[in-house]
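Hey, quick one: can you model this chain's 3D structure?
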Amino acid sequence: MGFRSLKKLQRAHWRQLSLQQQSGWLTGLIALGATMTAVSATELVPTFWQGFMTGVWGTGTALLIGLLVAIQVSARSH
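Sure thing. Here's the predicted structure for all 78 residues.
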């Protein structure tokens, strides 16, 4: 099974989930992202890597929050 077919299967599975299940998954991933952002920000590593990893986790978390907001707005409009 190739990457593209796996990606299609994952998207199909995601679409089959209810809005509550999608929101639950995203909330859990946001909590994980917030935890990893805090860990990255307080890690004792060189400043460049600390900033880089904090930025990566923070950006990913912000994108997940945006996706959760989009799902919630979509659910309220239906």
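One thing worth noting: Residues 22-77 form one domain.
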